[in-house]
Automatic annotation (TrEMBL):
GO MF annotations in UniProt: ATP binding
Domain ABC transporter as annotated: residue spans: 4-241
Keyword vocabulary terms for this entry: ATP-binding, Nucleotide-binding, Transport
Annotated InterPro entries: AAA+_ATPase, ABC_transporter-like_ATP-bd, ABC_transporter-like_CS, P-loop_NTPase
Protein name: ABC transporter ATP-binding protein YjkB
Entries under SUPFAM superfamilies matching the protein: P-loop containing nucleoside triphosphate hydrolases
Lineage, uppermost ranks: Bacteria, Bacillati, Bacillota, Bacilli, Bacillales
Amino acid sequence: MTVLQVNEMAKSKFDNRNEWLFSGVAAEIRPEDRIVLLGGSGQGKSTLLRILSLLEPFDKGDLHLDGQTSAECKPQSWRKKVTYVAQKPVMRSGTVAHNLRTVSELHNKPFEEELARSYMEAVGLGQMDWDKQASDLSGGEQQRLALVRSLLLHPELLLLDEITSSLDPASKRAVEKLLMDWAAGQANGLERAYLWITHDLDQARLISNQVWFMAEGRLLEKSATEVFFENPATEQAGLFIRSLQETRGEKQ
Ligand SMILES: Nc1ncnc2c1ncn2[C@@H]1O[C@H](COP(=O)(O)OP(=O)(O)OP(=O)(O)O)[C@@H](O)[C@H]1O
């Protein structure tokens, strides 16, 4: 059972080491958690996700995965369990097939072509020509290919950074469904979880059973999704929800 624990974590600002980008972050991610991370732009949400997958260092606090500290665990083994999917994916040079296979090769595992095809189908890329150059794909296609690459690693915890931001509504729904089904399944007999950054309120309500809300350099709220939206504990969260609702109203 994979449990990620964050204790009193802080990250200093790179332009002023005496100020925190965020501090006092304490939280836990347990199997079957489906968490959305909400907050205004520039709060450090992406930075937090990168820290949790050991892609960036932190300045204070500690991080435990199944009882082991981040210092005791090799980053590569950590990332096999805790996988970050970026908003702007980096494609490897070469074809779609090469991008899909490389992940398995890097982890000395056989390439699971059937599974790759089923994930590609599920995200709406079932018809894609695997001989196409990955660099020629659209932003939305690259986002979905990157997600499939990550799923092929059989992670137990996915850290998802606005991964549907370039998708049309139908593709977005397909990705949401795939990931909710994925979270309800198991990896190597172990339950799965995700922590997902989004700015889309409808998506947040649909995909999560918990909300983490970042504001003023803190993880200000951690609540059940319904509670967060119906009865936010802080004024900041209430204002944040209203501002997103107003923006949505203006767009409609
Ligand atoms: N040490 C630091 N590490 C990362 N970002 C930092 C740091 N110090 C200051 N910053 C600034 O803080 C912001 C953090 O960006 P980040 O992408 O993590 O926030 P975010 O909450 O995910 O924003 P968005 O919702 O716009 O994607 C950026 O503007 C960055 O320039």
